[in-house]
Design a protein that fits this description.
The complex is a heterodimer of chains A (about 550) and B (about 290).
Chain A: H1 7-31, H2 35-56, H3 74-102, H4 115-147, H5 156-176, H6 190-212, H7 221-240, E1 243-245, E2 253-255, H8 259-294, H9 301-315, H10 330-342, H11 344-357, H12 362-367, H13 369-391, H14 394-400, H15 404-433, H16 442-474, H17 487-524
Antiparallel strand pairs in A: 1-2
Chain B: E1 14-19, E2 22-25, H1 31-50, E3 55-56, E4 59-60, H2 69-93, H3 96-101, H4 103-120, H5 122-125, H6 149-158, H7 183-197, H8 204-225, H9 251-260, H10 275-291
Antiparallel strand pairs in B: 1-2, 3-4
Helix pairs in contact in B: 2-10, 4-10, 6-10, 7-8, 7-9
Classes of the chains: A mainly alpha (about 550), B mainly alpha (about 290).
Subcellular location (chain A): Cell membrane
Family (chain A): Belongs to the heme-copper respiratory oxidase family.
GO molecular function (chain A): cytochrome-c oxidase activity; heme binding; metal ion binding
Amino acid sequence: MIDKLTYSERQSASFILVAVAVVGLLMAAFGNSNQLGVHGVIVMIFAAALLYPVLSAIYAPEPVEDREASYYDDPIKVGIVLAMAWAIFGMFMGVWVAAQLAWPNLAFDAAWSTFGRLRPTHTSGIIFGFGGNALIATSFHVVQRTSRARLAGQVSPWFVLFGYNLFCVLAVSGYFIGVTQSKEYAEAEWYADLWLVVVWVTYFILYLRTLARRKEPHIYVANWYFMAFILVVAMLHIVNNLAIPIAWSSAKSYTIWPGVQDAMVQWWYGHNAVAFFLTAGFLGMLYYYLPVRAQRPIFSYRLSILSFWGIVFFYMWAGSHHLHYTALPHWVQTLGMTFSVMLLVPSWASAGNALLTLNGAWDRVRSDATLRFMMAAAVFYGLSTFEGSFLAIRPVNALSHYTDWTVGHVHAGALGWVALITFGSIYTLVPTLWKRERMYSAALIEWHFWLAIAGTLIYIFAMWNSGIIQGLMWRTYTGENTLAYSFVDSLVAMYPYYIARAFGGLLFLIGAAIGCYNIWMTVKAVPSTVPATPDAPETAAAVPGE
Amino acid sequence: MEVKEQDPVTGRETTGHEWNGIKELDTPVPRGILLFLIVTHIWAVAWWFFAPTWPLGTTYTKGLLGIDQRTTVEERVVEGQQARQDWMARIESEPYDQILADENLMQIVRSSGRQLFGDNCAACHGRDARGRANYPDLTDGDWIWGSGPEAIEQTMRVGVNTEHPESRIGQMPAFGRDGMLERDQVRAVAAYVYSLTHPEFSTPENVERIEAGQQVFAETCSACHGETGEGSAEAGAPNLTDNYWLYGGDLDTIIATVHGGRQGHMPTWDERLTNAEIRMLSLYVHDLGNRQP
């Protein structure tokens, strides 16, 4: 992969890595033996591990071919591998914390393995590690193909990919040693957050510059969603993470937002992380890989426009529904609730547009598990967006809030929508990228599909039951106007559902492991034939008169 | 450049755009979606009229219903308090004997006390109040600090070995570790205590050890546990002649107790629960112990 870079590009890569290592050294020196120091050492190791292959090949022959005549796929391949590695890690942590809820002794009496520390390693590992890497990889793929142009940079795609993974490593390793700013889905501390800003802005510029080089008159819908994802996540990340470190030598910082404003900013961030990271980005995936796999045109361009603008506009207002019946003023709650309900139609329009695109290809949905992954993802997307709008209604939320119903809702989205669309996209993408005719085994994709579906259904049914029982127990009064159940009573009632949930998660993990094996075997297989369809950007020479 | 085509499956025209083989149909937005969009918007706008919604500088639109969650919750809390007031006041002020004699009131204690016990006491004593190793069983009718709701109330208020000025102090010294008794004496006195509840242990080969232990007991232990070993609620010294054991009644555990001592801890609830709640829990716990044969 280094051989595709010119000498000066290898030099700039080395320069960046040395600079990162120096920052790590400074962190280690200033942090001394505290958590910042530990992270300084991790940064140095990370940079050194990447510097080694670059320096060993720095005087290797330069590429002779015209790089502009081919798409830049190396960073995408690495991104797919990283996404799958994070998937296994994150899902394993998920099964572990789920099991801890049923059998608390599985924390083994250590500090690093308590529920409070492991739980964010699961959420960050899945959302940022698995989801983020999958989004970066597929966005690089989609933007090149739909623009018929190569990525606008040789080093910057690597910088985005590895820089982002450094952020993920800092975040997740921090939780084990007790580093957190106690904001859900934004637990990473100030230095990791600052680093992510640098990486993300690079990502945004790279994406814009690539789009600017496009050889198509129009920008395809998938790119609208990827652009919304990159732009809004930058905005959310910066505003929610505004914080002041207690010292430059400390990992600890305090947010600049006071009291209920902090809660509001956090859930404006939190809900839009769901909207623009876990929805918009993955809709970008859906809009490319679903029609490609189904070989059908998108059902309605007009519906795409309606749902895109509906989604990006309404989601922005919905965050306050996470704070119903709290210190947040009533009027903010009404706004959040009403916008959440208005959001339902654009969301369903997206799901419907995806499903109606399959008209004329339903026989393939039956026979092709890869396409079925994407079909099921669209169904779960519709299901969880309906559930989300429903739970945002205040009286409904009075029952569901703080219960497992919320957890079930999130996983209907995370397992059923995000993970399924990702697996469907990856199974479509891997043979294309590695120039194979097809995946190693169609039967293993079937196994993965049914394990994932069974795991998801067991999980969400367990959490629906558990959550509704919890909510009802907490609000049941005796004839004397006192609570009928203690909190412990509700925990006892949860026990069977917690076991079922851990089991559902385990099935999902096994499916993902099968997926990894299948991808590995596909990559290992010797290519039989050169693909018949040309897969290259349009160069200036090929388009006369441009 | 843009070539519109007819899709053979749906009969619709494409928009003429194409990206790497992906095309789009020019299908109009289905009427159902537009209708649904209108319905959700009407629902939302109606809410804006009825409930507080839009900020206006330093104030906000109050809504036609005049509701606000803060006043709603305050009203509900007052309503609940009023509904509980009658029986709560009685539990708080009437003498225990009078309450115990009133079967209706005791029913309330049993149903409402259970939830209170679950939220405050079950973490140590268990949901069924049967305790576990090192945490006393409250259902067995055996009371270290004395029986009856008054004694239970006192234990709850001041706790055991707490910083409360009137805390109950239950200190079993570490006789072995702190060198007050020799190793042999510890083993002997443990054997004696064990034999109190296990007569079959007094076999000829153990008799000598047990008698030596009895001697040590009379000199060292009887101050708190009494000459016969029946204990003292005053000192929080448990009865050693019955079969209720807080830390375990096998010989090894008794040796460990005499060697290392025991200083249990029960928190004080004076500041955490209201008067009525403490009295209700005292009755509830007393009642649990009484229900045992």
